Amino acid sequence: MTETLYTNITQLVTARPGPQRGAAMRDLQVIPDAALLVRDGVIAWVGERTAAPTAARTHDLGGVAVVPGLTDPHTHAVWAGDRLADFEARISGVPYEEMLARGGGIRSTMRATAAASVEDLIALARPRLQALRASGVTTAEVKSGYGLDFGAERRMLAAVRALQPEFGLVPTLLIHVPPTEARAEYVQGVCEDLIPQVAREGLAGAVDVFCEKEAFTVAETRRIFTAARAHGLHLKLHADQFQTLGGTELACELGALSVDHLEASGAAQVAALAASDTVATVLPGVTLHLGLPAAPGRALIDAGALLAVGTDLNPGSSPLFSAQLALALAVRLNGLTPAEALTAGTVNAAHALGLTDRGALAPGQRADFLALHSADWRDLTYTLGGNPVRDVFTGGTPA
Ligand code: NIG
Ligand code: FE
């Protein structure tokens, strides 16, 4: 048994364990002059230092605030090539969707990724995941989706599997954009070949679909989701990024873990999410980088939805390598309070991945936590550009 008591914590600040909706997202537990006992990688006790149990070992954190490790519930951290020319073109006025319709954008990343080996993909993804880790991420979801052909999709998932032990990754199979020809056959192959293989080999725990005008229709999404469910996989969805096609309503109806993006969502989508257990995941990096409207974070929380925040780290719509900055942007762009942002980046983000064993500093939870540079936790969402995270601990060990 290994046991460490962490002391000299000015404030220990955490959401309550489990998913939180509405006003409960603001109900943080704040313990001044706190201590934290970790036993075998799991939190055994939290409370005021004066009431702390004795432990075999103590670790003085030096008088700073402690918060839970962050979960990034939406990344595309594995890709090859770059979108630097796309970025310049977009800044000069070419819309993102038009680039995709012309065979560029996501499709250019697909060509580069399909040409890369698993070893190349691992080497390219590692520094991106290190950047996320430094920003406070202790668990990250990583999607496939730049493969198109099934061999390349499997290579992407193999790269995620190889990096999993180092970074605490959760892999998702993303069915991203259809081929330009033989579309119906492609969807059939996804349902009858790719999803069964991925489920059998445990390569991903969930299936995500990009439901949008330039990608998959609601009917195709329903078909893919039906196959995913039949093979015991969770559902996630990219929806309402540019248009509201009905994907959000479908995902809520089928009990998806989350619907992500929501920049174009209106009152009907907010109501559907609020009435469901599906997490609404907002991605403020996309709002900043593409100049899209902000997803209605404030309205979602006020309506009682479960809300999470992700980076959407990817080369085209969100080159955002910091989950801390994603939370800071959600406060500015999506109307969250700092307390709501902390909840959105911890327990709710974990719930968006179907994980209940992490995200809160409470007995029984994984000992994933952050020591900040500051004595006041509010620096976490205040800081822009600097990194307020000093130390990252995963399972009670410095990462
Ligand atoms: O989540 N919008 C669809 N997919 C990604 C972007 C992928 C890309 O542009 O390379 C997203 O924004
Ligand atoms: Fe995405």
UniProtKB/TrEMBL annotation:
It catalyses: 4-imidazolone-5-propanoate + H2O = N-formimidoyl-L-glutamate. It comes from the Bacteria. N-formimidoyl-L-glutamate binds at residues 146, 314, 316. Belongs to the metallo-dependent hydrolases superfamily. HutI family. Its cofactor is Zn(2+); Fe(3+). Pathway: Amino-acid degradation; L-histidine degradation into L-glutamate; N-formimidoyl-L-glutamate from L-histidine: step 3/3. Zn(2+) binds at residues 74, 76, 238, 312. It comes from Deinococcus ficus. Keywords: Cytoplasm, Histidine metabolism, Hydrolase, Iron, Metal-binding, Zinc. 4-imidazolone-5-propanoate binds at residues 83, 146, 176, 241, 317. Residues 66-396 form the Amidohydrolase-related domain. This is Imidazolonepropionase. Binds 1 zinc or iron ion per subunit. Fe(3+) binds at residues 74, 76, 238, 312. Pfam families: Amidohydro_1. Catalyzes the hydrolytic cleavage of the carbon-nitrogen bond in imidazolone-5-propanoate to yield N-formimidoyl-L-glutamate. It is the third step in the universal histidine degradation pathway. GO terms for biological process: L-histidine catabolic process to glutamate and formamide; L-histidine catabolic process to glutamate and formate. GO terms for molecular function: imidazolonepropionase activity; iron ion binding; zinc ion binding. Its EC number is 3.5.2.7. It is found in: Cytoplasm. One of its GO terms (cellular component) is cytoplasm. Its main location: cytoplasm. Coiled coil: none annotated.
